Amino acid sequence: MAAVGRTLIWNGTLIDGTGAPPRPATSVLIEGNRIVAVGSELRPQDLNGSQPLTVVDATGLTIMPGLIDAHCHLTYGEVRTEEELDLYASLEYRAIRAVWNAQKVLRAGVTSISDPGGSGYVGVAVRDAILAGMFPGPRMTTAGRFLSTSNSIADYYPEWVGVPDSSSGVLVNTKDAMVDEVRRQIKSGVDLIKIGDSMFGQHQAFADDEVALITETAHRLKRRVTIHARGPGEVAAAIKAGVDWIMHGELMTDEVLDMLVQSGIPLCPTLTLVANTAHWGERVGASPRRVYFYAKHLEKAAETLTKARKAGVPFMAGTDSGFAITPYGHWHARELELLVDYVGFTPLEAISIGTRNNARALNLAGELGTIEVGKLADLLVLDGDPVRNIRVLQDRARLRAVYKDGQSVDLSGPWPERTVWPHERALIAAREELYWEDVYPSEAVREAITSRLQTDLALEPTEVRE
User: Is the pTM of this model over 0.70?
Assistant: First the structure.
């Protein structure tokens, strides 16, 4: 990253993240890690000062806040199987892998993430290494292993295997164990506690009083609480306990939705993993049964979440990046497209959800996620208009500049992709990574494919090609 100084991003169309309409011919002045001026009157020749000034000409481009992914499992490592996630890599290797993957997230224009649970305290270590300037990466908040019962997400294996210490979850079947684990995790430096209820809302795995006890303990120790909760029972328990935000929630009943509206608790649906599986899972080896299940689930989610939008529930945005079907740096902005297409938000509203609203997950609400004087200088300069086409945010080739904390991110060099993977195991979610370019190839790639097809079709039947 470049040295901290003054930077003028000049004469672009500003989407400030507040929900206000875009402002053409607007400039943004950064000094240190803060935004110090925003306006159409700012001109390079008028900005004299003791510090050198870097001018970035954004004419014809869009200036907007850096994206925030409120549900990004940076410690997962783009796994293809649950066993690969839980068993087949040391915690030390997972930490090294995570800081390597962090650069992909940042170079995709995602300047902040919240990691709601993963292996050991890898998230804590990666957060601190990025904060110390050892590696490039997004600013982070992180949970530790998410709390699980024998009947909830993370207890995947038979009883004779149990929940290994290397798992992304930790088994807590009694109230004493729950309180002890919350205390241990907070002592070890987590920013938030993650509760993991049943995977697809089959039942309520944590009793109401257990969710309340976990939440009260964490809040007393000045930490946030989030929960994986899809069904009505677990969502209602989370609302009554006063968790800080709810992940998923798409199977709640109308009665529970009314409770959520009254509580003011934000909802982070996290549709990207479900949608990628439903739309393109068969491309990467997901079973037809899995694809069908996720497709039906997406339909139900759209219905419930549209009701939630109309009722005034505050939304956040996350992707579940970290699996092979949601690899880092490729799909973070797709959640905003899905909020438009399936939930009915306008592109401008979706952008505010993925910037201003998501600042809550970084404990920086009011300081991050909008381009206003005094705010932290996390910004993107983009070739395209996401208000007209929200999908342009997913195309890294359109990024002209990324700033995190007022510093320019180096976007040069080849895109880092891992090429060697462990052997395939059971519980396969996908057999290949689903990259954005596979679904939306560039014009050059499309022309190359067309040319190759035309050449192949022109061959005589007797010809042989290697």
Answer: yes
